[in-house]
User: Fold these one by one.
Assistant:
Number 1:
Amino acid sequence: MKSKDYDYVIVGAGSAGCVLANRLSENPSLRVLVLEAGGSDRRFWVKVPVGYAVNYANPALNWGYHTDAEDTLNGRASYWPRGRVIGGCSSINAMAYVRGQAHDFDDWSAAGAAGWDWAAVRAAYARMETQSDRPQSGGPVWVQNLSDQMNPFSHHFLAAAREAGYRTLDDINQEQTEGLGFYRSNVRNGMRWSAADAFLRPALKRQNLTLEEHAHVVRLDFDGARASGLTYEQGGQTHRVVARKEVILSAGAINSPQLLQLSGLGPADLLKSQGIEVRQDLPQVGEGLQDHLAVSYQFRASQKTLNAILGRRTGRLAAGLRYILTRRGPLAVPVNQVGGFVRSHAAAAVPDVQLFCNPASYEVTPEGKIELDRDPGYLLSAQPCRPTSRGSVRIRTGHHMDAPAIRPNSLATEADRTAAIRASRILFALSQTSTLRSVTAGAKLPSLDTMDEAAMLDEFRNRASTVYHPTCTCRMGQGAQDSVIDARLKVHGVAGLRVVDASAFPNITSGNTNAPTMMLALRAADLILQDAG
Ligand SMILES: Cc1cc2nc3c(=O)[nH]c(=O)nc-3n(C[C@H](O)[C@H](O)[C@H](O)COP(=O)(O)OP(=O)(O)OC[C@H]3O[C@@H](n4cnc5c(N)ncnc54)[C@H](O)[C@@H]3O)c2cc1C
């Protein structure tokens, strides 16, 4: 067993871990180690934007979790992909760049995360981003406007949105977030621009930053009440590292609470039931899980969509050639092309549903493989922005290789069930616009046309799926009874330990979670460096 010393040891080279690795190693006198359970992200289908569908279920890049079956989803268990690769989920995600809405962060602050209100986080976003069409911006996260390459069918969706009374926007990430437009994406020169590309790779040139791949952290080590380091396995060997200043968990919303629980920090009853010595009773570790559920309906189109190209071998070959020669075209653009935030009813105080229109229809094989239809089609999708149900992540055994129990507790509240119906009604209204009707050959089953509200809810229970945004399982707040970490992301009652990743959100944000996670890590690094003096 070898043992080494670092100032900061970061667990996980995902969206948050990459940001921390970069910012903390800017000071050459600090020695920083990043431990990542996965391997290299230098793979063709990680870099090609459309490769999202290929990576979706690839066990070489993916923890491939499953939730417990849920009665509220008519007995279904859900597949929850999570990146196990350099870049974490930012290397396998759909690349949509969405900051979230102002009130999401004001609600963080109200929940006890003082200093995380919109005014504060907006400045961090601005510092982090370079907008491809606003060259005066200057951060490492490349946010590409790909509207010139989006499938032309998306324009029908935007016209239908206007017909239905929704505003269309040039950029849903600016001051005005209510409305629909082309999504911006983390794509640069036709390739995925992950957190590893933006933050980790440039920092690895520094002598004081070390990255260990295929290094699976087993548990944290303690010196009294202080986290002093950790133990990890790599290539069949066990190693220990000492963290002179801090251990920082950035293992994501499933694995960060799992590691805390395995290390004796969590709900005392749960730990005892798994034979784990209770180091600190922290009842909220793994609790408070929030995620977005989306329901999709597919349609056959009377106009060409992506199916005409990628649904056919000749089209795929032509698109592949174009991509190799120009880094442009259908392979260079993520599948989530157009959408945004809308209000589902007149009394909604804020936009409460996120919409997507993807210019493709598909079937999923029994093995979980996505196969595009040969004939043109498109998909409309809606997800309630701010679910109120909260679930949990709890270890099932004391062994680090055993997946924890994931119980999303979907649709547990009346508010969430109502939101599911309202989201479905928006899709029906859009499908009835004369614009979409004029380019639609018919609905693929199931069709909204014949559904009343009860049927819409039942269909949501039958088919709504995660959009892969688990958050809040080590959330920020004021004390151990309502949270796991404080507003400086320090674990309550434990010295030398922070959690910095999507698990730290007090509440889920309205939209996709990658941008808020990177923003959170950028601000966390400021706090860590301030505390280091
Ligand atoms: C299929 C998919 C599509 C998505 N699409 C979008 C999208 O289009 N836009 C968007 O904004 N968001 C999207 N998301 C969500 C977004 O990518 C995540 O919310 C975000 O990346 C989470 O970042 P994180 O740092 O919390 O965790 P992660 O990025 O998951 O990083 C955690 C890292 O820790 C490592 N790790 C875990 N346990 C250990 C251990 N014991 N030892 C060592 N290392 C460990 C993991 O391997 C991983 O690399 C998507 C996610 C998925 C899975």
Note: The chain has one domain: 4-532.
Number 2:
Amino acid sequence: MSSRRVLLFWSIGVIAYVIAVFHRQSLGVAGLEAAARLGVASSGLAMLAMLQLLVYAAMQIPVGMLVDRFGSKRMLITGAAVMSCGQLVFALGDDLLLAVTGRMLIGAGDAMTFISVIRMINLWFPARRNPLLVQLTGLLGQLGAVVSAVPLIHSLHEYGWTATFLGAAGIGVAAVLMLAAVLRDRRPEPGAREPVLRAAWAQPGTRLGMWTHAATQSSAAAFLLLWGYPFLVESQHQTPAAAGVLLTTTTLVGMVCGPPLGYLAGRFPLRRSWMVLTVIGGTAAAWTAVLLWPGRAPLWLLVVLVVVLASNGPGSMIGFDYARTFNPAARIGVATGIVNGGGFVASMAVIALVGVLLDATGGDYRAALAVQYPVWVLGAVQVLRYRVKARRLLAQLEERLGEVGGGEHAALGAQPVK
Ligand SMILES: N[C@@H](Cc1c[nH]cn1)C(=O)NCC(=O)O
């Protein structure tokens, strides 16, 4: 397979992922219209968003197993088709039940996309290029969210709800056609029918990846998805415009620091856990400074916070690199699903607990945001624990390979397609 074709297939996968992120975020810019059309308050809208994320997170492991069984192409096509149906239901439905059905379908289709693209990268590219390509994939996906907001808002105001979401469904149909016409896939691995879930879970490297993803991404995810804006406006008394700029800074700086981190992870694989611990420690330190600052934190400190939070997304991608290096190709989908599911369960837990604590304390953001500390501490401890276990296993394996005359370090890792 020529490297040009491999790059073409990766680009097609990335486009499918960008479209998935577009579908995922499409409720975010339609909040006011959704509230009026469906007759719900903010809590109803939050429930719609949470249900979509819940379906996404719950489907990670089943989808990972399906990706291993049926390959990336079929799963990407199915995902794009399911998201398109979700947008269709959302476009035509005018009550809460249909809106919930639409968003759940979008969560389900979305769940099939990222894992399938990561599996393609793991199987098609040489190991040393993987961390960078995974970072670029994550980065370009975020770009999808940034560039889709303005056209969606414009379309909602210009053409209305039904036309806008029918258009979104149409983009999904175009994605299905593009994937079916251009993408090629490998036949499933012969070992793909083995009970891969138990084996992937038993591998300490998978759990190292899962805790990495959970501890690094949850703070920025909770900040960007829900609590950052109200925290900056209500607690830090920033203007809505300044809060918007600070939130955008996190996304944009994250895009800048992704490639260097991917390069470093590929160049120094034995230092990946130090990078992860630095991201967790830096995030905890920045939040501590903001939360302990008497009264309102100065703007420079908030800028430090959003810049440090920008390292969370790229740092979380190291989790997928662990899944790749510690699992054979036949179970790379399910291992990636475990890593991704862990990150999203942790993010949802932080989002929900901050909400519960805000209610319980009458809106005390300091107390509510302190709920992140147990997540960081548990995550860092588990990263250290599973790092030891994974290294021990690797050392044993190398010893055994040495005895039988082997010697390739990547005995466990997903191999590129020749
Ligand atoms: N950690 C994110 C991706 C990311 C990369 N940079 C910022 N965010 C992730 O888990 N992605 C999975 C997905 O489906 O988007």
Note: Residues 114, 138, 141-142, 217, 254, 313-314, 316-317, 340, 343 surround LKAUPR5Q (CB under 6 Å).
Number 3:
Amino acid sequence: MSAVLVTGAGQGIGRAIALRLANDGHDIALVDLVEDKIAGVADEVRETGSKATTFVADVSDRDQVFAAVEHTHEALGGFDVIVNNAGIAQVAPLDDVRPEDTKKIWAVNVDGVLWGIQAAAAKFRSLGQKGKIINASSIAGHDGFAMLGVYSATKFAVRALTQAAAKEYAAEGITVNAYCPGVVGTDMWVTIDKRFAELTGAAEGETYDKFVGGIALGRAQTPEDVAAFVSYLAGPDSDYMTGQAPLIDGGLVYR
Ligand SMILES: NC(=O)c1ccc[n+]([C@@H]2O[C@H](COP(=O)([O-])OP(=O)(O)OC[C@H]3O[C@@H](n4cnc5c(N)ncnc54)[C@H](O)[C@@H]3O)[C@@H](O)[C@H]2O)c1
């Protein structure tokens, strides 16, 4: 099939995407901050029969992202898809946000996606081939959530980059889309829930449960639910789709 680079692949949604795409028959380059985590996922990928390679990189560092793309091409013998999945959350009332807070989250969630877009487009161009760029936005990229204001801003920004890149690269046969999960019970949500508890006096688990209670389909979202949509985006059935960022949230209505 094709060679896919997934960032933030060491756990949560990124891990599920890596495993789903490996099961679809793609070879996978796993990129994350910590080697131990991606080494374990690489073993799981190899069990599916697909190739796996790991590369430690911080997506907020442009040179490291370009190096990750080069590594993918060398190790897997191709480069067809990038999934710019890595991201961090931040829970704070807007009044409390300081410059160092916005810099950090912006560097990972927005700059990190931009470097991934640039590096992938440059590589597709140098190889003279088409390619697919897939970015992690969020339901918080469609609605500004209280206490998640800066996080929401970064995810709106990911949608903006997705739309702009889709227009800039369309003539080269490069498609650019995003996925927008709702509430997925990964480590990210454990951290969000704890921070809500500290700030609002809610019991631990209460905020997560409230959000899950607002999901129309009546069950919590799994990383595999997200990975199923990314499987479509990474495969040939999405060839005529670009610049889109659909919600995959089970019909979440709680705000
Ligand atoms: N969990 C949710 O409910 C949810 C909802 C909507 C969108 N998202 C988005 O989906 C993506 C994955 O979320 P998750 O819940 O799996 O998160 P997670 O915290 O469980 O995992 C994120 C992974 O990204 C890695 N990472 C963080 N910063 C990095 C950096 N600078 N460079 C490289 N890797 C880095 C972490 O080490 C970790 O392995 C994120 O972009 C997140 O914003 C998550």
Note: The chain has a mean pLDDT of 97.
